[in-house]
From TrEMBL:
CDD domains: AAK_P5CS_ProBA (cd04256), ALDH_F18-19_ProA-GPR (cd07079). The lineage of its organism: Eukaryota, Metazoa, Chordata, Craniata, Vertebrata. Its EC number is 2.7.2.11, 1.2.1.41. Residues 316-604 form the Aldehyde dehydrogenase domain. Its main location: mitochondrion. This is Delta-1-pyrroline-5-carboxylate synthase.
Amino acid sequence: NDQKFSNRVHGSSFAHRGELRKTKRIVVKLGSAVVTRGDECGLALGRLASIVEQVAMLQNQGREMMIVTSGAVAFGKQRLRHEILLSQSVRQALHSGNGQHKEMFVPALEARACAAAGQSGLMALYEAMFTQYSTCTAQVLVTNLDFHDDEKRQNLNSTLQELLRMNIVPIINTNDAVVPPPEPNIDLQGVNVISIKDNDSLAARLAVEMKADLLIALSDVEGLYNSPPGTDDAKLLDIFYPGDQQSITYGTKSRVGIGGMEAKVKAALWALQGGTSVVIANGTNPKVTGQVITDILEGKKVGTFFSEVKPAGPSVEEQTEMARHSGRILASLHPDQRSEIISHLAELLTERKDEILAANKMDMEMAVRRLPPAMLKSLSLSSAKLSSLAVGLRQIAVAAQDSVGRVVRRTRVAPGLELEQVTVPIGVLLVIFEARPDCLPQVSALAVASGNAFLLKGGKEAANTNRVLHQLTQEALSLHGVREAVQMVNTHEEVEDLCRLDKMIDLIVPRGSSQLVRDIQRAAKGIPVLGHSEGICHVYVDADANVDKVVKIVRDSKCDYPAACNSMETLLIHREIVRTPMFDKIIEILHNEQVKIHSGPRFASYLTFSPSAASSLRTEYSDLECCLEVVDGVQEAVEHIHKYGSSHTDVIVTENKETAERFLQQLDSACVFWNASSRFADGYRFGLGAEVGISTARIHARGPVGLEGLLTTKWVLRGDGHTVADFSESGSMKYLHENIPVEQNLTGQQLAFMLASFLCPVSKALIDVL
C-alpha cells in the first residue's frame, strides 16, 4: 500500500489540489467547534464517529495519520456539571424536610479542572471508536516546553515516529490541565519558533516537526473568506497564496475555542513555509462531514487550499466572472454584429484549416493507441468536416438576427399598461465535451447567437485542436470587443468541482458518453443539466413495411455512425415478418455490415440456435451491435419502447398511415420518426445550424438543442404610474388583458435566405450577388 503514496523530500509543499492524492503523512486538526456540541457541554458524537471512520480507513490504506484534538474541556465540563448537579440533588434530598427544593445552581467551572476531568474520558471515547476499525491509538499530551526544549522536542519526535512505525494513530492535545491561560494577540514568532497558544499553532508546529505532507484543519466555517462570512460580499477562497494576506478582512473567532480565523491563517502559513501543505475546511456541516477528509485527499474543491505556487492564468472563478461580464456586452450587441462574429469564425475555419488539421494530427498520433475506434472517429477532423462546420455556422449567423430581444408575447393589461415577454440569454453555460473538437466552434457560435457566456471544458485527448479552435473563436469575438465571452478551462479543475459552482454557472451541457452525462447529473446538485444520459434508440419494422425502405433505414440507423447517441440500439420486428424474405433481408444486411446481434427473449424462442442473449433490453452498445426483439404489433412496440427506451429517438417503418400516426402520437420520446433514419436526430440536419446537445428532459428544450434552447424569457412591463390599488373594488381601472399582435421584423439577410429557399437557382445566385 505504501508504494502509491509520495516519498517526496520534505521542504516544498504541493502546488495543486490534485497532488494531495499522493500524501502519506497527514495531521488532522479537530477544532473545538467540530468536537463539541452546540451547548458546549459534551461532544458531538456523530461528527466524531464520521471523522474517526475516515481517519481509520486512510490509516488502513497505508497512510500515516495523526490527530490533534480539542474536546477535553467540553467533555470534562459535562462530567463536572453532572457531578455537581447530582451532589446538589442528593444534598437537597437529605436536608429538605418540608419537601421544598431550591433551584440548583452550577458555578462557573475552571477550564483546567474541566480538562483534567475530561482527558481520560475523551481518550477512552477515541479508543473505543477506533477499535471498531481494528486501529490502535495512543494519547500524547504536550505543552510549549516540549517544543522549546531541544531534548524534549527530540523525545516527542522519537515517540511519534515510533508510534507511526507501529501503525498506531497518535492523538495529540495540549495538556490543558497544566498550561497557563492563553495570552491574546501574541503573533507567531518567526520561522523557527511558533507559540503553542492554541490547537491551530500546535497542529502547525507538529506538522512541520514531523515533516507531514498535509495538515487538514477542520473548524465550523467552510474555509477562508475574503471578508467575514455572512457579509454581503464575502467569497470563499478556493486557494490562498501567502501574498494575498492584505486582501483578507477577519471577523470574530468561533463560538468555542481560543483561536479565530486569523490564528488559523497564521498557523497555516507557518506550516506552509515549513514545507507542509494545508487545507482549512468545515468539519461540522452534515452534508460534507461524512467525506470531508477523503474528499480533500481526492483533490476535490473542499475548503481553502494554501499554496505557494500561483498559476500564471486566471482561476476558473475569475474566468467565469470575465465570461459573465463579456456575455452581458455580447447580449447587448446589435444582431448584425453577433452575426458578423459568427460569419468571421466560419471563414477562419476554412482559411486556417491547415493550422487546425496540423494540431488535430498531433492529437490523433498521441491518441491512436489509447482510444477505441469510435472515439478516434470523433476526435478526427478533415477538410470536409471543417467545411461542413462552416456551413452550419453560417446558418447560425442568419438565425442570430432574430434571437435575443425578440418579443414572444405582447399584452395590454390595462390602458397605458403594456406587458411584453422577451427572449434573453440564460447566462453562463458550462459545456463539457470529451474527444469531440468539432463541438467547440459549434457551441461557440451558438453562444454568440444567443448572447450567452460559455465555459468550455474539453477532453485532454483533443488539447492541441481545442487550443487552436479556441484561439480562432477569441479572434472572431475580438471583432466587437467580447473576446472573453467564451472561455476555455485549462486548469487542474476536476469536472465534479466545476459542477459545484452553482452560484456562478446557470446551466451545464455535457457532450460525450452516457457515463459522462450520468456523472455530471449526479455531481451537479444545484445546477440544471441539459442532456441525455443514454441514447437507446429503437427502429420498429411494422407488418406493412416496404422492404427497400426497411433495408435502407436499418442500415443507416445502425451503421452510419454506431457510436452516435442517435444510432439504433434495438430493432423491433413485427411477429408476422419473422421467417419471411423481408426478415432474411434484414438479417443479411446486418451480417454484411458485421453487426453483432443480441437476441431478446421473445426472438430467442423462435429459433433453435439463437444469437447470444441480450444481457439487458436497456443497453446502449455504441458499436456495431444491436438487440433484436419480436413484438405483436404497434401497441406492444410502443409499450416496449416506453419500458426500455431512453426517450431519445425512435422510428417506425410502415406504409400504413394510420399505424404510423398512432406510433407518432402515443410514443413519448423527444424525436419520433416515420420512414426515416434515427440519424436525422441532429441539430444541423434539423436546420438549427448546430446543437449543444440532445435533451430528453421534460421541461425547457427537448430533442436537438439549438439556438432556441439556449434562450429564456423575461417580462417587461411599461406603465405610467399604475398601482395595484387602482384595480381594487374601489379603484378606477379594470384589467383588459388584450392580446396585441407581435410584429415579425425580418432583416434583409433573413429575407434573402427565405427567398432563396423558394426561388430557382438562378434567382438564388442573383440574391447572393446582391
